[in-house]
């Protein structure tokens, strides 16, 4: 029993030592947050003893660049960064300096170590822009967007309707229980699916990253409507104009003899078919109340196209 206990003890010590060795040679990330235009110190935890070589790399905007090597800084860091064996010293940081800095150290004989520092340059958010549709059709999807690009770290977003903050889950608040929407605080997207008559109102968004004061957008009004009455009216008017021009053109061609049709047929067309077409068109024109129905509009379109095919 004692032998087994000693075996487990030695095995535990071996694992602890191995883990210590691995962690000493792997990346150790340190978080540094400083306001814009202030000093910053980025430690190199991988530095030990008298290294043979020390290099720094910078990762930002999806790319990696060599920051310090062979005892020199690359542009544009020469005049505002100082190198020390165990750290980098920024005299003044800008928002473009936000990113990951990797310190790589080669210790004799061939012991390679590295550590990393994530620098976040704190920048208050600017005034966001609320992108809100002016009119949405009831029963369709409506997407509202809050846009802000200056804040660092990236801000979170909150939406307000009629000066009342909107909860992420509408079912948790009696004022929004009748609404159906989803909200993403990280992206600023507010989606109504489907939009309802209740969703009409004045909307604005707010951006906050805990650096400086929260910023609010301008207020934008969103209305809801059952159908696009204006589009239906415009479609009916265009349809009638096109049908009228086609009918007139065909009648003019027949009466002037442009088609090789016997005179008796032309007279029959002028005396019988043309008046019938005009009467049917007049009888099948939709009333103003019918324009509120997509079904009525489709019926008018189908019937008038049938008349046109019969005419031709």
From TrEMBL:
Keywords: Cell junction, Cell membrane, Disulfide bond, Glycoprotein, Immunoglobulin domain, Membrane, Phosphoprotein, Repeat, Signal, Tight junction, Transmembrane, Transmembrane helix. Belongs to the immunoglobulin superfamily. It is found in: Cell junction, Tight junction; Cell membrane. InterPro entries: F11R, Ig-like_dom, Ig-like_dom_sf, Ig-like_fold, Ig_sub, Ig_sub2, Ig_V-set. One of its GO terms (molecular function) is integrin binding. It comes from the Eukaryota. This is Junctional adhesion molecule A.
